[in-house]
Amino acid sequence: MAEAVARVARKVNEVVENGEHHLDLSECALNAFPIGLYVVMKSVAQDIRSINLANNEIKALTGKFFTTFIQLEELNLAGNTLQRLPDEVNTLVQLKSINLSKNKIQDFPENLLDIKTLERINLEDNQIKDVPVDKLSCIPSLQSVNLKSNPINKDNLKLLGIKFELLI
After folding, report:
1. What one-character-per-residue DSSP string does 59-107 give?
2. 113 secondary structure, DSSP code
3. How far apart are CA 8 and CA 26, in angstroms?
4. What's the pTM?
5. Rg of the chain's alpha carbons, rounded to an integer?
6. Which of 15, 30, 124, 141 has the fewest CB atoms in 10 Å of its CB?
7. Does residue 160 surpass a pLDDT of 90?
8. Is 35 exposed, middle or buried (0-12, 13-18, 19+ CB in 10 A)?
9. What is the C-alpha to C-alpha distance for residues 113 and 92, in angstroms, rounded to an integer?
10. What pLDDT band is residue 15 in, cutting at 50, 70 and 90?
11. From residue 53, how far is each of 4, 58, 59, 74, 90 by CA, in Å?
């Protein structure tokens, strides 16, 4: 555990000291986004464009995470135990790509539908049964939605006229 904490501190210090735009805290055994990082990263939070929190043990993210890193364009939350996203995710008005694969999400996160800049949504290997394809079609920049390995009710899908790649 001490090694994981040291790795998080080292990676955050590199971002803060070097003014980097990418924060990679993947595989750091995190079960939440460390509260102390909001203070440490306050001066650079608006410059962070991508965050990788993949392959941790994160059960939930707070609204503060999304309202702190409002300039995010890419967010990788794959390989955690998330069940839902807070409503504040829709404050990420620059977000282009979100990876939520290999989590515990049961309902399609409809709060993503408000993010008009989204190009790629990866929800592979979750527990989603229903997909609001008609609402997804209203996201102008959407290019791809990956829903492979979900127990989707394909009988209810209305696939006519969609303008993005739907992987099921």
Report:
1. ----HHHHHHSTT-SEEE--SS------GGGGG-TT--EEE--SS---S
2. G
3. 9
4. 0.94
5. 16
6. 141
7. no
8. exposed
9. 11
10. confident
11. 13, 8, 12, 11, 18
Alpha-carbon span 165 to 161, nearest angstrom: 11
CATH class of 2-167: alpha beta
User: Does residue 8 or residue 82 have the better pLDDT?
Assistant: 82
With 0-12 CB in 10 A as exposed, 13-18 as middle and 19+ as buried, what is 88?
middle
Residue showing tokens 């001490």: 2
Domain residue ranges in the chain: 2-167
Secondary structure letter of residue 12 according to DSSP: H
26 beta partners? none
The pair of three-digit structure tokens given for residue 41, joined into one six-digit string: 């990263």
What is the rounded distance in angstroms from the CA atom of residue 48 to the CA atom of residue 46? 6
Residue in 145, 144, 58 with CA at minimum distance from that of residue 104: 58
Place of tokens 């989707």: 152
